[in-house]
Specification:
The complex is a heterodimer. Chain A is α+β, with helices and mostly antiparallel strands. Chain A has 14 helices and 15 strands. By secondary structure, chain B is an alpha+beta fold. Chain B has a domain at about 5-200: Aldehyde ferredoxin oxidoreductase, N-terminal domain (Aldehyde Ferredoxin Oxidoreductase,  A, domain 1, 4-Layer Sandwich). In chain B, helix 12 packs across helix 13, helix 20 packs across helix 24 (about 550-565) and helix 21 (about 480-495) packs across helix 22. The chains are: A alpha+beta, B alpha+beta. Bound molecules: zinc ion.
């Protein structure tokens, strides 16, 4: 447990979600027979009591770093004035976290009540009496602190996407919101960071199986390093010698060693049962396009752009509450198609929409979810395409804001 | 009440008397249904001899049974095991659960012993005992054909249950086995050949709209689950999809658990059955996963073996023939016995006699066991009793007398701890750590470490106790969680509960099982694994080492488990903890 609580504390810092030291540093606890924490902190006496109320074995407490602190504080404040939950529309949140409950104070009963229903809770407030300051996010786990890590990362991601999405929609409907303008201006510097245009990754041809593994491990680490995924989600595959090598489901893309499944294309083995939930989409895409590598990440502005819809049109749309599965309008950003489809192989699964779209474009955005890019033989080209599409989406977004926002 | 019908039938076979007993809302909330309720009604008999006529056989549905809740169409059977002496129980698939609930019963509790073979027939509120002399001696297939249940649900035993095979199974609706712990013999001892149920009512649902929503949430997360709905998941390939995975992970029990990798496995996987039999989907009532596979070719109508059967009738017994596996599976179902226990007992026989099987000799032995002839007379008592009688108790790969399923514990330490602690003996389903140790859900844990596993196992045991009581299928929890099912439960019953409330019920249900077993003389001495796993390594590979399990680490994890579970370091429950959980206390 000691090893695990330290590991996930570090990962939160590496992911740019937390400060390395001080009160903003992550706090991670793990319980087997005894409870261990990665560091000491004044919050521990309250957090320890959460373990008495819930059947959990770990807990992550985090005051998110910039810009997530501003965004979450703002959204949480708005949520408390309404239903008490933040309701992001991106696909991962919808599928796995549902909505995000918010409580006002660092108060045990309220926290426990929220965590009995949901996987995370956001604490908005500052409390003069106790000296507690927010915002903070708490996420427990039932088998590993990795769950808390993943869920907190998803909260940060979902809030980021929700904030920028709502902001743009607000501008389009002509809503005046000086408070939101102010938050936007505060977090703007975060968006200045540019992605590199090209990446130096292993070049094909891959002569041996172990080169395939090495190239995938390298590409996986790179995609996490550049923040092109939320926490570490996404997946990648490489087709070699009639076998599709694909990252395993829930595999940490920055730790792919030992987490790649070889799936024979002739269906002679079911070892792909632990492969990414998008295995079917990958296989189908490769069959249709003849490409050999696929890279899938969740770059934030691709996701935001995919949900950008004209409010007037949306108000009149019969599928306005089912955009992610039913959006009837063929849409693009530049030449990149946006398709609906949810995770997995259900009737509205993206395996039904994505592969067809990949026939006409080497990059396709899935609504509210992320970006898929294909590459001929290695990950170099795929990677620069991924970066270029994200840069394009961000640029377009900022242009729209500049155009719509009164000076 | 919503969800529960609020009544059960007490069927006394000795006096041929049937009583109706109401269930209080409080009991329902605290023990849910299924396994929980079965355990509650079993507790008064906890100190009786295993073959005492007053030991009940309980068959319970749950509050979700016969609603549109996903995978809710099951029921649970509970008694005292003739094989292990522990509480016996098994989840029952097919449609009998739905029929029983529709007939208006939360459950039935069968006690006593008939002088002559009988069947129980339930049609809505009407229950009758029917003479079954003509069926005695028949295989389960023949019973099914003879009674021709059509829409009704049918549970019956075969010759194995009649002939006191200690691992006899109850077969429901032709293809589904309540396989483990010898429940077939429990029925056989009562001279009860079959239970036939049909019902026309409905489960009352408090909030159908909320139920619909909750159902959709669950369907959505299952669609995102590779293990369930993916190209190689259970829905497409059956549970046999696990076979290649166990091969890849070097944890396939081979040659009676003396090795963990089987060279021929590649040709014996689910894909091989798919090629040979072109199976079609089949499943329990109320399920959308449909993991059961029925062949359409080679011998049409034959059920495809489940993963455990595939593995044990190849690697464990040293054979390489998928048609033998299918035949052995069919033979076991037809004779009414558990495939896992049968295979492990045969593997033990092979190790002790040092004689390899041929497909024909293996099938002949299965017949001998069920029909109580020749070598079968000794083997029908299970691996532990057989190995003991041969003076080689270490050759029995069983925990507390229940033969081990097809996951080698040297390849997954949570599984090792789960096997050792399980309240029904060597069983993978109580804690089911396969989910995180192998299938990476909800996240992957280090399978070669005991770190954190004690509490993980305890929580999972509580969670699965809830699942067996609601009732739902364990497989769906590869994708969904109790969080989603709490919403379903609230919608059906109108009781506003959270996953944590359900887990509290699970802990109560589990602790009661510990109490029952402690009354039967079980303690820390029995919570252990066969010695082999601590002394012999498994079969490693270049990337995977499979060393023996470190005994000291295991004992430390076991001590941690007792502390987390609220047991003494001797593995015994305490009155104080029982009171705290609201479980009625009983001791020797
Ligand atoms: Zn994705």
């Amino acid at each position: 447990m000691e090893i695990l609580v330290k590991k996930y504390a570090h990962k939160l810092v590496d992911a740019g979600l937390a400060a390395p030291s001080g009160p903003g540093a992550p706090l991670v606890g793990g319980l087997d027979q005894d409870l261990v924490w990665n560091r000491t902190a004044p919050e521990i006496p309250v957090l320890e009591r959460i373990f008495l109320h819930l059947n959990i074995n770990s807990l992550v407490f985090l005051r998110p770093g910039f810009p997530y602190d501003r965004i979450i504080r703002f959204l949480a404040g708005r949520a408390l004035k309404a239903a008490g939950t933040i309701m992001p529309q991106d696909c991962e949140t919808r599928t796995f976290l549902h909505d995000l409950p918010v409580v006002e104070q660092f108060d045990l009963p309220a926290i426990v009540t929220a965590l009995k229903q949901r996987k995370t809770v956001i604490i908005q407030g500052n409390d003069r009496n106790t000296g507690f300051f927010g915002p903070a996010v708490i996420a427990p786990g039932t088998v590993s602190p990795e769950q808390g890590f993943v869920h907190i990362s998803s909260v940060c991601f979902a809030c980021f996407v929700a904030f920028f999405s709502n902001y743009l929609t607000g501008l389009k409907t002509g809503r005046k919101d000086p408070e939101m303008d102010q938050v936007f201006d505060q977090v703007l510097p975060f968006l200045q960071k540019e992605l590199p245009a090209s990446f130096d990754l292993m070049h094909s041809p891959f002569c041996r199986e172990k080169d395939v593994y090495a190239a995938m491990v390298q590409a996986g680490r790179k995609i996490v390093d550049h923040g092109l995924v939320d926490s570490y989600f996404g997946n990648l595959s490489c087709c070699w010698n009639n076998t599709l090598y694909i990252s395993q489901t829930g595999a940490s893309l920055d730790e792919l060693t030992g987490c790649i499944d070889p799936v024979p294309l002739d269906g002679s083995s079911t070892a792909g049962i632990t492969a990414s939930s998008e295995l079917t989409a990958h296989l189908e895409t490769i069959a249709r396009t003849g490409c050999q590598v696929i890279l899938h990440g969740h770059p934030k502005f691709c996701v935001i752009a995919s949900m950008d819809c004209d409010p007037v049109r949306k108000a009149a749309c019969a599928f306005a509450d089912k955009c992610h599965t039913h959006c009837p309008v063929p849409r693009t950003i530049g030449s990149v198609p946006i398709v609906p489809g949810e995770v997995g192989t259900g009737p509205y699964g993206l395996c039904n929409t994505l592969p067809r779209a990949c026939e006409t474009s080497d990059s396709v955005i899935v609504h509210g979810h992320g970006l898929f890019v294909t590459g001929k033989t290695d990950f170099n080209r795929a990677f620069s395409t991924l970066a270029a599409v994200e840069t394009l989406c961000k640029t377009r977004y900022l242009e729209q804001v500049r155009y719509l926002r009164p000076a | 009440m919503y969800g529960w019908s609020g009544k059960i039938a007490l069927i006394d076979l000795t006096r041929q008397k049937i009583d109706v007993q109401p269930l209080s809302p409080d009991i329902c909330t605290r023990y849910l249904g299924g396994r929980g309720m079965g355990g509650l009604f079993l507790q008064p008999a906890a100190t009786l001899d295993r073959d005492h006529p007053d030991v009940p056989v309980c068959l319970f549905t749950g509050p979700l049974t016969a609603t549109s809740a996903p995978t809710s169409g099951r029921c649970h059977m509970v008694s005292i095991s003739p094989l292990t002496g522990l509480m016996a129980d098994a989840s029952v698939g097919g449609k009998i659960g739905v029929q029983l609930k529709r007939a208006g019963w939360d459950g039935i509790v069968i006690t006593g012993k008939s002088n002559t073979p009988v069947g129980i027939e339930i049609s809505d509120s009407h229950i009758s005992l029917v003479e079954a002399k003509i069926l005695w001696g028949m295989t389960t297939d023949a019973v099914h054909q003879h009674l021709n249940p059509k829409k009704a649900g049918l549970a019956c035993i075969g010759p194995a249950g009649e002939n006191r095979v200690r691992f006899a199974a109850v077969i429901t609706d032709r293809y589904h086995a309540a396989g483990r712990t010898g429940l077939g013999m429990c029925l056989g001892a009562k001279k009860l050949k079959y239970i036939l149920v049909s019902g026309t009512g409905r489960t009352r649902v408090k909030d159908p709209e909320l139920l619909k929503q909750a159902r959709q949430d669950i369907i959505r997360v299952t669609a995102a689950s590779p293990a369930l709905m993916g190209r190689y998941g259970f829905s497409r390939m059956g549970t046999g999809a696990m076979y290649d995975l166990m091969d890849n992970r070097h944890m396939m029990p081979t040659d009676n658990f003396s090795a963990t990798w089987y060279g021929s496995a590649k040709n014996l996987n689910a894909a091989a059955y798919a090629r040979a039999y072109s199976p079609k989907n089949h499943g329990c009532r109320g399920c959308h996963i449909l993991c059961k596979k029925i062949g359409t070719r080679t011998s049409a109508g034959t059920a495809m073996p489940e993963f455990e059967t595939m593995s044990h009738f190849t690697a464990l017994v040293g054979l390489q023939d998928i048609h033998l596996v299918t035949a052995a599976n069919q033979r076991c179902n037809s004779l009414g016995m558990d495939t896992i226990s049968a295979a492990v007992t045969l593997a033990c026989f092979r190790e002790i006699t040092q004689k390899d099987f041929t497909p024909a000799s293996l099938l002949a032995l299965l017949d001998d066991i069920a029909l109580d002839r020749g070598q079968g007379k000794a083997l029908k008592k299970g691996a532990a009793a057989y190995a003991g009688s041969m003076g080689q108790p270490d050759a029995a790969m069983a925990v507390k007398g229940l033969e081990l399923p097809a996951y080698d514990p040297r390849g997954a330490y949570g599984m090792a701890l789960g096997f050792a602690m399980s309240t029904r003996g060597g069983c993978h389903l109580r804690a089911y750590p396969i989910s995180h140790e192998i299938l990476r859900k909800p996240v992957a844990t280090d399978r070669f470490s005991f770190s954190g596993k004690a509490r993980i196992i305890k929580i999972a045991e509580d969670s699965n106790a809830v699942v067996d009581s609601l009732i739902a299928c364990k497989f769906i929890f590869f994708a969904a969680g109790l969080e989603e099912y709490a919403k379903v439960f609230s919608a059906v019953t109108g009781q506003d509960v959270t996953a944590q409330d359900l887990l509290a019920a699970g802990e109560r249900i589990y602790y009661n099982e510990r109490i029952i077993n402690s009354c039967r003389g079980f303690d820390a001495r029995h919570d252990d694994l066969p010695a082999r796993f601590f002394t012999q390594p498994g079969t490693g590979a270049s990337q995977i080492r499979v060393p023996p399990i470190d005994r000291a680490d295991f004992l430390q994890a076991k001590a941690a488990y007792y502390s987390v579970r609220g047991l003494t370091q001797n593995g015994l429950p305490t009155r104080k903890k029982a009171e705290q959980l609201g479980v009625s206390w009983k001791s020797l």
